Amino acid sequence: MTPQRTRTTGRRGSSRAAPERIGSESPLSSTWRPAVWERAVLVGLSLGGDEDSLDELAALSRAAGAEPVARVVQSRSRPDPATFVGKGKVGEIHDMIHAADADAVIFDDELSPGQLRNLEERFGIKVLDRTALILDIFALHARSGEGKAQVELAQLNYLVPRLRGWGEAMSRLGGGIGTRGPGETKLETDRQHIRRRISKLRKDIADLGRTRGVKRAGRERSGIGQVALAGYTNSGKSTMMNALTGADALVADQPFATLDPATRRLSLPGGRKATVSDTVGFVRKLPHELVEAFKSTLEEVGRADLILHVADASAADLDEQIEAVREVLGEIGAAGIPEVIALNKWDLVDETARRRLARRHDGAVPLSALTGEGVEGLLEEIGRALPAGDTEVTLLVPFDRPDVLPRLYREADVRSTEPLEEGTRVTARVPDRLLGALAEFMLAPVRVRSRAARR
Ligand SMILES: Nc1nc2c(ncn2[C@@H]2O[C@H](COP(=O)(O)OP(=O)(O)OP(=O)(O)O)[C@@H](O)[C@H]2O)c(=O)[nH]1
Ligand SMILES: [Mg+2]
After folding, report:
1. Atom 2 (ligand 1): residue with closest C-alpha?
2. Could you tell me the pTM of the whole model?
């Protein structure tokens, strides 16, 4: 994750050795480096005294093109209303900026418009908060028209309350991290113009979402189960999508590589079909502007029959990551959907940690999407957990109806088959819409009431 690059430490304003950039290479390739690396001081609060790490902020900074050159963590119970950190700390950061020849200060939380202004005035260099940084990475990685519109909408919503009295700072924007997306000219126009742009973007996004809605409605009508991948950013969702379906979704060791949703067909053991969707990853303190702007994309997750929650088992803060993901799932109305937890990157976990994690996350499936180890077990678990309808039936399918069994394998959950003289005896859990078509073969329907009873 650490960029391989050497830089000459020049004075601010002097020309720096810009890292090489290969043609129009994508920012998501492993060798891409921004044309200009800014030098950033990272600042965080350690609330309640627990050792908060700024490692994640450092990874986010690098993804946006800023190299962390110094870190400051202040221990205090709540932020200072005017300057976020205390007065003494402001002085300390100021000195550090000069010592490290930094161009930007990045705070690990969202700053209020007032705090942002005060700090910009005090430091005289660009001040970014966690929200602006995440928005910037999204802007860098947006590919589709819908993704770009969603990011711009989120950026403008972030900007509006911060416009007033920001004239001077605003005109400084336009080069480097924290400023991609709405161009400088757009930023300099008045609020009204921005509001009009916001309405236009909302409308465009709604139109684009409708197209996807039509496709989704088609999938829903087809009655096959829908699995949604969800998880902390960089946990391996796209790698998992590829391992499960043979797709070639983009994989990169960076936060928020995937922004556009993608859906593929999935074959479960026994032949049952399902679809699986990959979408944008989550993060602690995910900006609410982004959740709002990406609502139509995230709705896909909210309408799934099963959530495959991909967690990075090698992450030191695994539990917090799982918690952060569940929080966002709650926000988008997906909290009640059955969930399978995949403890991914198991290949990076040593024996002792494996035992501890297996005890702690009973029922989760350990695996490596990268090596493929354990993927079979995950498919079986998906097959078990994916609701297949509420009715268990026993059927006698005559041999002169060769169309019935394949359909059952495709659309229902076949539990057992037994060849008899008159035909094949099948027990299966079937979705309600199939009941009519199967009525003529039914030996005994058994109502299953709860999900727990089904397992
Ligand atoms: N060692 C190991 N690395 C993995 C595994 N799964 C994924 N990775 C790596 O983790 C990084 C992130 O993988 P992605 O599949 O892009 O993760 P993602 O969750 O889709 O990330 P975003 O789309 O950015 O939120 C890549 O460098 C992968 O090669 C695994 O099982 N083991
Ligand atoms: Mg991805």
Report:
1. 345
2. 0.79
